[in-house]
Specification:
Number of domains: 2
CATH architecture of the largest domain: Up-down Bundle
Distance between the termini: 30 Å
CATH class of the largest domain: Mainly Alpha
CATH superfamily of the largest domain: MFS general substrate transporter like domains
Mean pLDDT: 84
Low-confidence stretches: 381-411
Number of helices: 17
Amino acid sequence: MPLALLALAVVAFGIGTTEFATMGLLPQIADGVGVSVPQAGNLVSAYALGVVVGAPVLTGIGARIPHKRLLLLLTGLFVVGNAASAVAPNFTLLFAARFLAGLPHGALFGVGAVVASRLVAPERAARAVSKMFLGLTVANIVGVPASTALGQQLGWRSAYWAVAVLGLVALVSLALFVPHQPRGQHSGIRHEMRAMGNKQVAIGLATAVVGFGGFFAVYSYLVPMLTHLTGISDTSTTLVLALYGVGMTVGTLLAGPLTDRALRPTLYAGLIALAAALVTFYFTVHATVPALITITFIGAMGSLITTPVQMLLMAKAKNAPTMAAASNHSAFNLANAGGAWLGGLVISAGWGWAAPNLIGAALAVAGLGLAVTGGLMDRGGPVGPRRSKTVASSMGEPSTATEEGTAPQRT
C-alpha cells in the first residue's frame, strides 16, 4: 500500500509541476515561439481548459475500464502532452499541446483518489487521498522552482522534457505497485452521470468553485503584492512561493486525519480560517515577517479544504464516485479562473494591490454558506443525519457509512 500511494503521489507531483511551471517561464517561452508575454500567458489558460474539458470527458470514456489500466492510459497521455509541448515548433501547436497535457489532469486525480481510498481501511480513506495530494503540494516546493530554474538555464523546452520523464517514472511505478481494482457490476457512463445528478454533488462542486476561488483570488496576484506592498525583491519571490508551498503541505498533512475524524467540521473550519487569514493578510501585507507568516497560513488553510471536498463528493456520488472526484478538479480550475478574474477587477478598479484579499475572504465565506447549506440538507432538519452509501470498497461493492465520509463521522 505505501508504494502504491507513493506511485500516485509521483503522478500528482508531475501534474503539479507541469501546471505551474509555465507561469515561471513565460518570458523564455514567448521569446522561443515569437509571441508577446501576455499572449504566451494564454498557454496557462489552454492547460486549464484541458483540465475542465478532460475531467468529465475522459472519465466518462473510461467508465468501464478497470482503474489501474485507466491510470496507465491517462498517465501515458500526460507524457505525450508534455513531450509534444517540448517539441512544438510554434505557438499554435504549443497551445494545442498544453491543452492536450491538461486533458488527463482531472481524470488522473479523480481515478487516483478512488484508487487511494480503496487501498486502506474505510476509516483511513481520507488520509490515503491526502497522501496522494501531497505530491501536488510538494511540487510547489520542489518541482516548480526546479523546472523553472532548469528552463531558464537550458531552455524552456527542457522543463517540459523533465516533466515527461517524470511521467514515465510515474507510469512504471503505477504498473509495478498499484493493484488491480475491478469495476463494479453497474459501472458505466450512465451510472456515473446519474450519480452526478445528486444535489449534494452539485453543492459540493459549487463549494469548491466559490470557496477555493477565494484562495486563487490572492494566489494569482501574490507576487505583485509582495513586490509592491511588502517590498520583497523579484529574486526573492520564488522563495516566498516555496514557503506558500510549505503551508500547503502542512495543510494537506492535517487534512487527512481531520477529514477521517469529522468531514464537515473540517471543511467548515478550513473555510472560516481561510477567510480570516485573507482578511488578516490585507493588513499584514505591508510588513515582511507578519506577511510571510500569514502567507504560510493561507497556503495551509487552502489545502485543508481540498481533501474534505474531495471525500464529500465521492461519498455523495455513492457507488459511482469517479466522475464526481474528477469533476472536482474541473471545479478547482474554474475557481482559479474566476478568482483571478475577480481579483483583477478590484485591482483595475483602483482598490489597490491588497484588495484581492477582501474579495477572497468574501468568496471563502460564500463557500462556507454553500457548505453549511449542504450540511443542513444532510441533517434533514431536526431529525438528524441521514445515512448514505459512500465510496465503493476495494472489491467494487458499496459500503454504508454516515452522511459524509468513509467512516462514521462526528457532526
